[in-house]
Amino acid sequence: MATVLIVEDEQAIALLIKYNLEKAGYETICVSQGNKVLPVVEKNNPSLILLDWMLPEISGLELCKIIRNNPEHKNTPIIMLTAKGQEEDKIAGLSAGADDYVTKPFSVPELLARIQTNLRRVGNMSNDKKEYVFKDIILKTREKKVFRGENYIQLAPTEFRILKMLITTPRQVFSRDDLLKEVWGNSVYVEARTVDVHIRRLRKALNEFGPDYIRTIRSTGYSIDDHDIT
Ligand code: CA
């Protein structure tokens, strides 16, 4: 069941949305304070976020940017809820990474339709990527598990994300910058050399059960490839 996080400081509106979403079969979590949003997102990993623009302490727009920059949540649909209807506000919302935009006062059927559309979009995306396989390496996205043949490989979250990026497009070379952006996000400053450290750990874990399929392309980056494995 999809869980919708409702971030709204006006209680009447929050209750109205909560009531209608639950009637439509969604689970809901309500948060009224901007500073409580990120911990809830981390803990509950909602399927979709309804985010009010005008919140005390931190604006919905700022929150949207922060959530988007977190690699774990960069695909979570965010619908901005706002009383603002100006074209420039809409553009600001979308450029902060919101997927959609609903202006108050809104009709409940319209809001439900937007939620459905946005959930369907990511649902389709994740269906395509339930599992990635390269040779004997299997990466299961939902379970966040990696196997080599029958052997379970325990990976730290960073190594998992690196492998996921590589295995999505085998033989494509990813630069350290590509990996930094995808795995760590834009907001964090990480040295390019850090990538090498995690690649080393990833290799060590994977190669315990088979040949080394991670290819280092000198001064360029990495790929997953079986080019010189005989
Ligand atoms: Ca508000």
Describe the structure.
With about 230 residues, the protein is of the alpha/beta class. About 40% of the residues lie in helices and about 20% in strands. Strand 11 (about 215) and strand 12 form a beta hairpin. The radius of gyration is 20 Å and the shape is elongated. Calcium ion (CA) binds near residues 9, 10, 52, 54 and 55.
Unreliable stretches: none
Any idea of the CATH topology of the largest domain? Rossmann fold
Number of separate structural domains:
2
By helix and strand content, what is the structural category?
alpha/beta
Average pLDDT number: 88
Helix coverage percent of residues?
Answer: 40-55%
* The CATH class of the largest domain: Alpha Beta
Proportion of beta-strand residues: 15-25%
Structural shape: elongated
Layout of SSEs?
Elements: E1 3-7, H1 11-23, E2 27-31, H2 37-44, E3 48-52, H3 60-68, E4 78-82, H4 87-95, E5 100-103, H5 108-128, E6 131-134, E7 137-140, E8 145-148, E9 151-153, H6 157-168, E10 174-175, H7 176-184, H8 192-207, E11 214-217, E12 221-224
The protein binds calcium ion.
Calcium ion is lined by residues 9-10, 52, 54-55.
Quick tags:
single chain; 230 residues; alpha/beta; Rossmann fold; Arc Repressor Mutant, subunit A; 2 domains; 5-stranded parallel sheet; 4-stranded antiparallel sheet; 8 helices; 21% strand; binds calcium ion
Summarize the structure.
The chain is elongated and about 60 Å long.
